[in-house]
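COMPLEX REQUEST
Ligand: iron/sulfur cluster
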Amino acid sequence: MSVTDLSAAERERILAKAALFAPPAATLADGRRELVGLSREELTAEMVAIGEKPFRAKQLWHWIYHQGVTDFSLMSTIAKPMQAKLAEKFVVGRPGVTTEQTSTDGTRKWLFGFRDGQQVETVYIPEEDRGAVCISTQVGCTLSCKFCHTGTQKLVRNLGAAEIVGQFMAARDSYGEWPSPTDGAARHLSNIVVMGMGEPLYNYENVAKAMRIIMDGEGIALSRRRITLSTSGVVPMMDRCGEELGVGLAVSLHAVTNDLRNEIVPLNRKYPIEELLDACRRYPGASNARRITFEYVMLRGVNDSPAEARELVRLLKGIPAKVNLIPFNPWPGSPYKTSTSEAVHAFAEIVNAAGYSSPIRRPRGRDILAACGQLKTESERAKRGAEATASSAVAAE
Ligand code: SAH
Ligand code: SF4
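STATUS: Structure written out below.
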């Protein structure tokens, strides 16, 4: 088999595995169908199925994603009898807000609950005139990077497109940022980083569907330039992500030798550093104007020496790159210490001197465990069945 065939086969395997962890159907016990998370084509098909004209889908899209309305009776361009008919058959939902905490630095974290009782965390990190929403894609994670809190939680299931888009919409609800700002008007929730719980490229179909909804120009209309997806290095899916979505890419590198990376990012045993960097070189759309971000968590005495900084520079040669240095964020029971400030600065200096921008990420929201790698929910895979009958938390019901 050629290399191309091999990676096609590998992609199939990854997608088949993702399907085993599929989210529950987005239909309520009373038979009403969730409209959030449907593609435009699916929404049109739903309208046709109830004997309506396809233009209804366009109207609904506007109300749902541009206006942020969840109540059919507020959709004023739709006649009352039609509103009632829609409300009988459909809902426009949101994840339920289980808890909301705001850090002393303004970072806000939500624990969102879904209809089957599963939960994820979502974080908003405000800057002066903008801000990024950090979105989760899975409940738990199959990978167990040693420095990551989410990695200690088994994968329970993938999130559906409705649940992924829903996190952003619920965050917008929290700040009242509806209707979606247009024509370059300032947005507080201006960026999305797909860097919360889970590995997005192990849930590619749902993530892709959600991103297409978010980028659709007649709805939320967030440009692909404002979206960054972070992967621990699922090489076979990286090309597809670049070709189909064109979002910015962040790669969790964290080590410059395969020996160390095998240990702290176990996925490296499957897709070693050389293959990962080749996939970065091929990443469609990467350019000096759109650099690939390499994330590097600084672990004291583990990966933070000047020699490692120099090796990093050597590895990145030829890739339009920038390096995000992330001081390790501790969590209860974590096995590492944060690098000293001197070590972080010395490392940054070497990378910077080689011509790569190397900002040191200021930890945000540590006091509420909202910083990178601190997210974790209480769910366990075993609880899945019991919770499905016991709980439902949906704002729209
Ligand atoms: N699974 C994806 C996206 C989620 S993790 C990935 O691994 O890229 C988002 C980022 O947080 C990754 O770069 C991850 O390595 C980093 N991270 C994880 N645990 C961390 C910790 N305790 N301190 C600082 N960064 C951490
Ligand atoms: Fe999963 Fe990313 Fe955490 Fe690794 S760093 S365990 S891939 S969420």
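REMARKS: The pocket of S-adenosyl-L-homocysteine (ligand 1) is lined by residues 145, 147-148, 195, 199, 230-232, 252, 295, 297, 326, 328-329, 372-373 (CB under 6 Å). The chain has two domains: 3-91, 96-379.
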